[in-house]
């Protein structure tokens, strides 16, 4: 992350992908506060740099929602997953694996909520 930031800048798409991936790594290790900070940073910077309807933004929304889902913070996860699913569906189509991944996580949240 430091190398990419130094070479390309802190808001370069490659740097932001690394920040996002680092957030996913921390989430997998159970370091939820660090994961949330990194994933939010990646999302905020991607939205600012790329616009709200870029696939990279939908990726960050999805990963942040998965973090919230893992913590049973379903009310926080739902809006991010809805946006990620709809964005991915429009950009990638109904049958793309990323679209299905967002839909699957959304279904899991609704099942946990008994919706």
Task: Give a structural overview.
The protein has a single domain (2-113), classed as Tetratricopeptide repeat domain (Serine Threonine Protein Phosphatase 5, Tetratricopeptide repeat, Alpha Horseshoe), CATH 1.25.40.10. Helix 2 (13-28) runs antiparallel to helix 3 (32-50) and helix 3 runs antiparallel to helix 4. The protein starts with a helix and ends with a helix. The protein is globular and about 45 Å long. The protein is mainly alpha-helical and 115 residues long. The chain is built from six helices and no strands. It has helices at residues 2-8, 13-28, 32-50, 55-70, 74-92, 97-113.
Q: Count of helical segments? A: 6
- Please tell me the CATH architecture by its name: Alpha Horseshoe
Identify low-pLDDT runs: none
The overall number of domains is 1
How much strand content do the residues show?
Answer: under 5%
Span of the ends, CA to CA: 40 Å
Which key terms come to mind for this protein?
mainly alpha, Serine Threonine Protein Phosphatase 5, Tetratricopeptide repeat, 82% helix, globular
Give me the secondary-structure topology.
Elements (H helix, E strand, L loop, with lengths): L1 H7 L4 H16 L3 H19 L4 H16 L3 H19 L4 H17 L2
